[in-house]
Amino acid sequence: MSEKIPYKIYLDENELPTSWYNVRADMKKKPAPLLNPGTGKPCTAEELSHVFCDELVKQELDDKTANIPIPAEIREFYKMYRPAPLVRAYCLEKKLGTPAKIYYKFEGNNTSGSHKLNSAIAQAYYAKKQGLKGVTTETGAGQWGTALSMACSYFDLDCQVYMVKVSYEQKPFRREVIRTYGAQITPSPSETTEVGRKILAEFPGTGGSLGCAISEAVEAATKQEGYRYVLGSVLNQVLLHQTVIGLETMTAMDKYGIKPDVIIGCAGGGSNLGGLISPFMGRKLRGEADYQFIAVEPASCPSLTRGSYVYDFCDTGHVCPLAKMYTLGSEFMPSPNHAGGLRYHGMSSILSQLYDDGLMEARSVEQTAVFEAAQAFARVEGILPAPESSHAIKVAIDEALKCKETGEEKTILFGLTGTGYFDMYAYKAFNDGTMSDYIPTDDEIAKSLAKTPKI
Amino acid sequence: MSEKIPYKIYLDENELPTSWYNVRADMKKKPAPLLNPGTGKPCTAEELSHVFCDELVKQELDDKTANIPIPAEIREFYKMYRPAPLVRAYCLEKKLGTPAKIYYKFEGNNTSGSHKLNSAIAQAYYAKKQGLKGVTTETGAGQWGTALSMACSYFDLDCQVYMVKVSYEQKPFRREVIRTYGAQITPSPSETTEVGRKILAEFPGTGGSLGCAISEAVEAATKQEGYRYVLGSVLNQVLLHQTVIGLETMTAMDKYGIKPDVIIGCAGGGSNLGGLISPFMGRKLRGEADYQFIAVEPASCPSLTRGSYVYDFCDTGHVCPLAKMYTLGSEFMPSPNHAGGLRYHGMSSILSQLYDDGLMEARSVEQTAVFEAAQAFARVEGILPAPESSHAIKVAIDEALKCKETGEEKTILFGLTGTGYFDMYAYKAFNDGTMSDYIPTDDEIAKSLAKTPKI
């Protein structure tokens, strides 16, 4: 087709995906299974069902079924804020003077401010369907907590959020959004769980971490009748739900005859990146097309570019199963000056395996350069991006500038996962010139990696 | 047409309006002209051109031309964030159990978080075209300041924003968004202008007001070579630009054969309400269709429902022309406990005339009830509404509940002007149960009205 590409491509409701795509079905080397830390053996469905909803356990373990139907109730909810627009960044291209064509899939047009709602609503739906009373979770930057509180409010489920204490204090407004949706929110570590009390005794005054909040949320779920734990990233089930991002993008691009050469996403635990690239990766794995995939991570928390591919603990309290992933060690703490999300020590097992197989690249970028890209983007494209998303913007701009040098007319696609409205304290540091970069030393990483379990 | 109405109707780019609609052309009684406070005579184009850009002066004074073409550059910018979706509130209808059909036009999907960008980009464009260096303005809640900083950054214009001091302090993050777009921002009243110094001398420690910030911005514009003043509401030109809201809505509704019975909008200065209703009002004025229009204002600042229709000062410092409008008197100060915008003492001359002619109704609503409506809406429709927009939600819900009683299947349309991400301190008060209502006494209003000029 040669019709002019609109600024924003919105699919019609009848073009929205009706199944999620499970990339594991097409992977020759499957991601390694979760292990029971007690037995050292792969977790069974029965073991996992104490922590997760039954249907989600099935999705977590299924590496054979390529297309998993999206229940009608979830599709109805998706229609409230989807399709997300696929935007042609005409203004950014013009500003850069690049022959490259830049597209971004924008997931920030919903109150959670990010793509996290795609999986939150699915997890809340399955919890409700199982007749549960509620769910527990952790949140770091706060996007996931907001998304889950929205989803639970919609299905009238109780929602208990453990929020990393430093974020709880730095982001009082994020906290109020979560409260507005009726969720209970507790700064972590807290006195409400055994693991929280233990951590507080050991490190009084700690600001907490994602790994610690996970431990508390898991404990809270397993100790309350009718509760399960839900997680916003890393897990196979989460990447599965997030494939609506990539599926919509692929449909929109196919419709206009656009083929991306480079696909870029920021990567913390991998939910957005996995969701965006999975359908395209499927084509690559089946030999139908080829694409260059780039995962972008912060230089201050570089699990893919500087971590090891080993089994590790998923949480600080060691109450979760072990996962094989690129990791910096479960005790790795990104510098507190690193703003926003992308602070998790490990990476989704699916993405770890794809990266290890050479099917995807990874780059790490420094914080100040990321905010420079964010500001440049905001000024021409209007949208104020989340710090997380801005990692992808930075590399998309780098790639577009390379095209300017070589004259190549590449098509670049990146995921704009969300908006930065609740990250203005970080923008303030950037505006004030007080933001700094931090790169962990080899020694720090080695020390933390030394504590991964011996499997 | 009888095809199923989607959750969200997005027009195609080729269906977007190419002209703004000037409702004054179809009004039998024209809005009263601006008066020069010195001479008591209608302001001439020449007089106004010291304050406003030439092209905007033309638009301000033109009450004959019905359709005013939107320049191509502005239409290009509109495509970056428009069309705004027209949403069918299926979930809200279900929650209310009403036979009414509820639609809302959502203007919050852009970084300014509101409809304000529609006029900001137009005003910045004409300033650039005239070869100006920059513009000055005031902002209260901060939506307009954000929108203007975005528009100026796009056209590389200098932008100086006087922000009401109490908002400047209450909303540090709103301030940072404006800085991120490169604007200079000064808390008002300030020492940078004569009028500011005068007010500070008279009321040391004052938190400022919109009327005072307007005076400072106007002074700053007229004292700097190559600068003009721009305003985000009240003026005819602003309502004109905002008709993109109503025009898109009408096109979308016509396309699906939907006819609204009731059209509801919140009203501060009138920019959103005027923009939404103008094209429908045009049909009513031309006898082509009939609609019920409802302006919703806060009980704490009730210019339409409790003000007088007289000539009044537009600003505290009395540097602006006089406007005939429903007003509470230029010294009226809404209670500081009133959150968000909709704090201006007067109302657009166009809307004032339509209201006075009985073509539009008005209602005032109290703050706590507004936030109850906001929370209920957020929980089922997902979007976290701005306090301003929530006034319209409140009355839309009231109307839908009336339909539930009577069994009428009315079609209700309201304007959802923006998001509340930067108003979480107000949501916090609501969540904490510390929010209160305030209704000015008759005496307070009479006292303030006594100071309107004798014309």
Tell me about this structure.
Two copies of one chain form a homodimer. Helices cover 42% and strands 16% of the residues of chain A. With 455 residues, chain A is α/β, with parallel strands linked by helices. In chain A, the strands form four sheets. In chain A, strands 1-4-5-15-10-11-14 form a seven-stranded mixed β-sheet, with helices on both faces. A four-stranded parallel β-sheet of chain A has the order 8-7-6-9, sandwiched between helices. Chain A has a two-stranded antiparallel ribbon with strand order 2-3. Chain A has two domains: 9-15 and 71-113 and 235-449, Rossmann fold (3-Layer(aba) Sandwich); 21-66 and 116-229, Rossmann fold, CATH 3.40.50.1100. Chain A is built from 18 helices and 15 strands. The termini of chain A are far apart. Chain A is globular. Chain A binds chain B through residues 6-8, 10, 12-13, 79-81, 91, 109-111, 113, 117, 150, 153-154, 172-173, 176-177, 179-182, 375, 378-384, 419, 421-422, 424-425, 427-428, 430-431, and chain B through 6-8, 10, 12-13, 79-81, 91, 109-111, 113, 117, 150, 153-154, 172-173, 176-177, 179-182, 375, 378-384, 419, 421-422, 424-425, 427-428, 430-431.
Please render the helix and strand layout as text.
The structure is a homodimer of 455-residue chains.
Chain A: E1 8-9, E2 19-21, H1 45-48, H2 54-61, E3 67-69, H3 72-81, E4 86-88, H4 90-96, E5 101-106, H5 117-129, E6 134-139, H6 143-155, E7 158-164, H7 165-170, H8 172-180, E8 184-188, H9 194-202, H10 210-223, E9 227-229, H11 236-255, E10 262-266, H12 271-285, E11 292-298, H13 303-306, E12 308-313, E13 322-327, H14 349-356, E14 361-365, H15 367-381, H16 387-406, E15 411-416, H17 424-432, H18 442-449
Parallel strand pairs in A: 5-15, 6-7, 6-9, 7-8, 10-11, 10-15, 11-14
Antiparallel strand pairs in A: 1-4, 2-3, 4-5, 12-13
Domain Tryptophan synthase beta chain-like PALP (chains A, B): 81-418
Enzyme class (chains A, B): lyase
Protein name (chains A, B): tryptophan synthase
